[in-house]
Amino acid sequence: MARKNSPEADFDRRLLLALGAGGVVFATLVGRLSQLQFFEAEHYRKLADENHIRLVLAPPQRGQILDRFGRPLASQRQAGRVSVVPERLDDPEATLLQLSKFIDLPESRIKRVLEEIQTNRMRRASFVPVTVVQELSYEEFARLRVRAVEMDGVDVQMASTRSYPRGRDFAHVLGYVARASADDLTRLAEGRSPDELKTFEELFRHPDIRVGRQGMERFAEDWLRGRPGRRRVVTNAHGRPMQELEQDPTNAAVAGKDLFVTIDAELQRVAIERFEGESGAAVLMDVASGDVLAMVSTPAFDPNAFVNGISGKDYAELRDNPMAPLYPRAHGGVYPPGSTFKMVVATAALEAGVVKTSDTVRCGGSYRFGNRTWHCWKKGGHGTMNMHDAIKHSCDVYFYEIARRTGVRKIAEVSHKFGFGETFVLGMTGGRSGLVPDPDWKLKARGEPWFEGETLNFGIGQGQLGVTPLQLALMTARIAATGAPLKPKLIGYGPPSDEDKMLDAPLDPAIMEIQKAGMYGVSSEPGGTAYRSGDLGLGGPRLAGKTGTAQVRRISAEERAKGIRGGAAIARELRDHALFVAYAPTDNPRYAVSVIVEHGEGGSRTAAPVGRDILAAAIRMDSGRTPVYARRADAVTPSTDGKPDGDPV
Amino acid sequence: MSREGYTGFTRGEARTSTARALHFASFGPLGSIARLPWSIILLIVGVGLTGVAMLFSVGWDPVAQAPSPDEANLWRDQITRLGVGFVLMICLALLPLGIWARFAWPAYAVVIVLLVMVDFFGVMGGGAARWLKVGPIILQPSEPAKLAVTMALASYYQRMMPTNGQSPPLLVHGGALLIILVPAALVFKQPNLSTALALAASGAMVIFFAGIAMRWVAAAIGVGLLSVPAIYSFVLEPYQRERVDTLIAGITGEATNGLGESYQIEQAKIAIGAGGFSGRGYLQGIQSQQEYVPEQQTDFILTIIAEEFGFIGAVGLLAVFAFLFVWSFRVAARNKSWFGRLATIGATSTIAFFAIFNSGMVLGLLPVLGMPLPLISYGGTALITVMACFGLILSAHLHQDEKMSSRGLF
Question: Is A33 in contact with B314 (Cβ distance < 8 A)?
Answer without folding.
Answer: yes
